[in-house]
Amino acid sequence: MSTWFLTGASRGLGRELTEQLLARGDRVVATLREPDRLDDLATAHGDRLHRHTLDVTDTARLRAVVDTAFAEVGRIDVVVSNAGYGVFGAAEELTDAQVEDVLATNLTASVQLARAVTPHLRAQGGGRILQVSSMGGHIAFPGMALYHAGKWGIEGFFEAFAPEVEPFGIRTTLIEPGMVGTTFYASSVRAPVLAPYVDSPAVHRGTLPVEDMPGDQAKVVVAMIAAGEAADPPRRLLLGSDAYRLVREALRGRLDEVEEQRESAARSDRG
């Protein structure tokens, strides 16, 4: 039996992960704003489900919950940083509060969770951290600028963080799904449209029906569990053929741009 800690357990990938882990006999420390949303799972699985109230943007509370969880259950094998949400709208359309909140939830909270669990994982001789990112950590759609800012930011953080903690036996994986049929889109915030953007063909506002999205939520979670248990997990895990195709195209395009600047870049060298 493994023990997993996760944020954002109330819906989507977090709820699916909680269900699959409990069904196979694992122990789960689930954090969410409304723990009673997991009452059915608590009834079915008893003391293998530990629930904690948590708004991940409250860093002091986050650290307290992490400390309590390790004290309660002892060893935690896998930490899953899943909490997050989307904001649709041109950057100009968002309020200052929306900008601050989405970055606090999707970026800062993930950084703080990684920092909070590191001493505990190091003390127990290692462990795993799965950070839910997105293909949106490599590509970007107009109309989702703040969502992408969070995902690109957490990708950069883990790029540096992973080799810092690997000597302690802590392995990290960025989970990068494509478009998955979850509650993510229904629960996303949509900013009021400003007049100059009413007819904009570029601004993506999350209108694709969930049933038309290629990714399967249950299969994504199966892959996440496998990554959490892999002897040599990848630093990044693309999930979905759309993720593979779009990220590959984006990286090749950026590499082509880099190659075009080989000579011009050298003009800034000293001497």
Automatic annotation (TrEMBL):
What SUPFAM superfamilies does this protein's entry cite? NAD(P)-binding Rossmann-fold domains (SSF51735)
Q: Which parts form a coiled-coil structure per UniProt?
A: 241-268
| Protein's organism | Pseudonocardia humida
Q: What is this protein called?
A: SDR family oxidoreductase
Domain Ketoreductase: from-to ranges: 2-178
Keywords (alphabetical) are:
Coiled coil, Oxidoreductase
Highest taxon of the lineage: Bacteria
Q: Which InterPro entries match?
A: KR_dom, NAD(P)-bd_dom_sf, SDR_fam, SDR_oxidoreductase
Output the lineage of the source organism.
Bacteria, Bacillati, Actinomycetota, Actinomycetes, Pseudonocardiales
Q: Does the keyword Signal apply?
A: no
Provide the family line: Belongs to the short-chain dehydrogenases/reductases (SDR) family.
Q: Which Gene3D superfamilies match?
A: NAD(P)-binding Rossmann-like Domain
